[in-house]
Amino acid sequence: MELYFLDYVRGKVVWAVNREHLNYLISYISADLRVKPGNVPVKTASHSIPAYIKNAKNRELVVRTLTKLQHKTG
What residue segments make up the domains of the chain, in order of their start? Predict the structure, then answer.
């Protein structure tokens, strides 16, 4: 099945399964402060986001790309 919310940032794929996932990614990536859980080794959803998406130098471009996908209709 082809992903509807799919684009590329600097040659690397950026995708979302649905609008809820897309909104989560935008809010997580655009957050000024990302608080990690205390000393508990808990894996959160953010652990599965590739490093190039979370990287500060790509932040603005990734958020802009995801926002563009958010406005996609069809």
Answer: 8-31+46-70
SS3 state at 50? coil
Q: Token pair for residue 18?
A: 């649905």
Which amino acid would we find at residue 65? T
Residue among 47, 73, 62 at smallest CA distance from 15: 62
Which amino acid makes up residue 49? I
Strand partners, 12: 9
Rounded to whole angstroms, how far apart are CA atoms 27 and 9? 18
Q: Which residues of the chain have pLDDT under 70?
A: 1, 34-47, 74
One-letter amino acid at 55 equals N
